[in-house]
UniProtKB/TrEMBL annotation:
GO terms for molecular function: chitinase activity. The lineage of its organism: Eukaryota, Fungi, Fungi incertae sedis, Zoopagomycota, Kickxellomycotina. This is Lysozyme-like domain-containing protein. Residues 275-293 have a biased composition (Low complexity). Residues 1-43, 267-293 are annotated as: Disordered. CDD domains: chitinase_GH19. It comes from Dimargaris cristalligena.
Length: 293
């Protein structure tokens, strides 16, 4: 790999040499955070220029894609353009809290959260948003408290249905995420924070990914189905909803074509992929499986 030259940020009067790295999804300074509401950062203190761009390989690129690539990856699935703040949080936490350093894994993660959140438009499990699905995700260790209504006192038990962009469920996940992120039990005591706070919705999603998906060997080998199995395998890989797992993969195929166009998407790891099944990518990035069996 060619040597990298770290150069100070040019002054306003100095012509800026285009690095070309943005087209590879590489940020000038991955640690700098975008101003919310702005598509460009004014706080970049350093710029990394490659002496030979042609020597960059896809797997050497940082997962912290620039906002234009992020917007394209979201919208290629038919979803509306995300906000600059959503891009900001994705870039801020993908590596630090999700452990994601490769574009292919970033595409996997983005596919899964887009599927779970209807294109970053919902941070609550749809069927539970109204009645909170009492009894659906219940354990003996759920947090409860008492409250007074007039002369009456009642016990309220928190409901831990899916919240956040990856639809975090069960009280033990809320508690573990809270201790990891904040060192306390605030999300266990107030699970609605995962849905009401944008940053928390992202951070819990990356926390879940790092804890339950990132270290799976098949995921690191590029098997998208393995990430689906880790998230909803009981229903979509081994259960009656394999059609939904295939739709997830079709979405991933579109997103991967934007993020890492030279990489072939691999559906393995979830439902059975027949050796006689041909997976062809159309010009629009969708995947058609034609079984010969």
């Amino acid at each position: 790999m060619a040597a990298l030259t770290i150069m100070a940020r040019p002054t306003p009067d100095t012509p800026v040499k285009p690095s070309g790295l943005e087209s590879f999804g590489i940020l000038s300074d991955p640690s700098s955070k975008l101003e919310r509401g702005s598509d460009e950062s004014n706080n970049v203190e350093t710029r990394v220029w490659a002496t030979t761009l042609s020597q960059y390989k896809p797997d050497n690129r940082t997962a912290m894609m620039d906002c234009q690539l992020f917007y394209q990856a979201v919208m290629v699935g038919g979803f509306p353009r995300p906000t600059p703040g959503q891009c900001d949080d994705f870039r801020e936490y993908a590596t630090t809290e999700g452990g994601i350093v490769r574009p292919r894994e970033a595409a996997m993660f983005l596919t899964q959260v887009l599927w779970e959140s209807n294109g970053l438009r919902s941070k609550e499990e749809h069927v539970c948003a109204g009645n909170q699905c009492p009894g659906n995700y219940t354990t003996d260790n759920d947090f409860s408290y008492t409250e007074k209504q007039g002369d009456q006192t009642r016990t309220v038990v928190n409901q831990y249905y899916g919240r956040g962009y990856i639809q975090l469920t069960w009280s033990y996940n809320y508690l573990a995420a809270s201790k990891s992120m904040y060192g306390d039990d605030r999300l266990y005591k107030n699970p609605q924070l995962v849905a009401s706070d944008e940053m928390t919705a992202w951070r819990t999603s990356f926390w879940f990914w790092k804890q339950h998906v990132h270290d799976i060997k098949e995921v690191q080998d590029g098997q998208f189905g393995a990430s689906t199995r880790a998230i909803n395998g009981g229903l979509e890989c081994d259960g009656p909803y394999q059609d939904k797992a295939r739709l997830r993969f079709e979405l991933y195929t579109k997103i991967l074509k934007i993020v890492e166009p030279d990489t072939t998407p691999d559906p393995a790891g979830c439902y059975s992929v027949d050796s006689n099944t041909n997976t062809n990518t159309n010009t629009n990035g969708t995947s058609n499986s034609n079984s010969n069996s």
